[in-house]
Amino acid sequence: MKNVTKRIFAAVLTLTVVAACVVTTSPQATAKKRERSDITIGIDPGHQSRGNFGTEPMGPGSSVKKTKVAGGTHGTTSGVPEYKLTLAVGKYLKKELKARGYKVVMTRSRNDVDISNKERAEKLNKKCNIAIRLHADGAAPSAKGATALYPSLENPFLSRSVCKKSKKLSQVLLDSYCRGTSLKKRGLSARDDLTGTNWSKIPVTLIEMGFMTNESDDTYMAKAKNRKKMAKALADGIDAYYGFSK
Questions:
Q1: Would you list the DSSP string of 184-233?
Q2: Strand ranges, E, within 24-112
Q3: Which of 10, 93, 166, 227 could form a disulfide with 150 if both were Cys (CB 3.0 to 4.6 A apart)?
Q4: Taking the domains of the chain in order of start, what are their residue ranges?
């Protein structure tokens, strides 16, 4: 009789453990993670420690040549160069996206590299579904806030489908970014003169995360805790673009 009781108790305990596991990891959550694992996000942290002022075609077949990769701006209050800011946020974004189940490809993982804008686009074209280009602005001290740059429907280098998806990606990411960081939303800007965008074969956006020449924006972006917020807000935007609920 004691053995029977022990077996019954063991069976009940096993069922309890199984039920707890089911509650912890719901079928919906597992399905969402599996769906995200089919998507590869490309991240291009803009610039590098030293610019390369050689030139390359602005787009496929273009006779217009542009600098391979400019040196970028820097924080007038923090002193942080743009290339360090973009890489820091890029790494936080990669970590956040991988935790959510996405695959991630970065154009660079260190600052001491020499990778042109054309080469960055071509690298992300190979395996990625979308490309996120991270940059920061520089202008008059009064200018502040975030902007998303996208290719117009008249872009001579990209298909209309890629351009339309790029605009949607830009809008969704900018909305999420500004909502999650409380940085001013300056809106979208159509740009057809960006080499790293024109060589893209996948939906692409360039996020100007804030003005490094504005004391408020620069001070905000210089803090690690805020960079994590910036990355999370961008990841939320990527989720929204693909229709994943929080």
A1: -EEEEEE-S--HHHHT-SS-EEEEEEEETTSHHHHHHHTSHHHHHHHHHH
A2: 40-45, 52-57, 65-69, 103-106
A3: 166
A4: 40-242
User: Tokens at residue 233, please?
Assistant: 């807000």
State the pairing for strand pair 130-137/204-211. parallel
- pLDDT at position 26 is 54
Give every CB contact of residue 230 below 8 A, 6+ residues apart in sequence.
Answer: 89, 92, 177, 180, 181, 209, 221
Q: Which CATH class is domain 40-242?
A: alpha beta
For 107-156, what is each residue's pLDDT tens digit?
999 999 999 999 999 999 999 999 999 999 999 999 999 999 999 999 99
Distance of CA 74 to the CA centre of its chain: 20
Q: How far is the CA of 1 from the CAs of 6, 7, 8, 9, 206, in angstroms? A: 9, 10, 11, 12, 72
From the number of C-beta atoms within 10 Å of its C-beta (0-12, 13-18, 19+), residue 163 rates as buried
C-alpha–C-alpha distance, residues 211 and 109, integer Å: 23
Given this model, what pLDDT does residue 245 score?
75
Residue recorded with tokens 């096993």: 14
Task: Show the low-confidence residues of the chain (pLDDT under 50).
Answer: 1-2, 4-6, 8-25
Give me the residues paired with residue 116 across strands: none
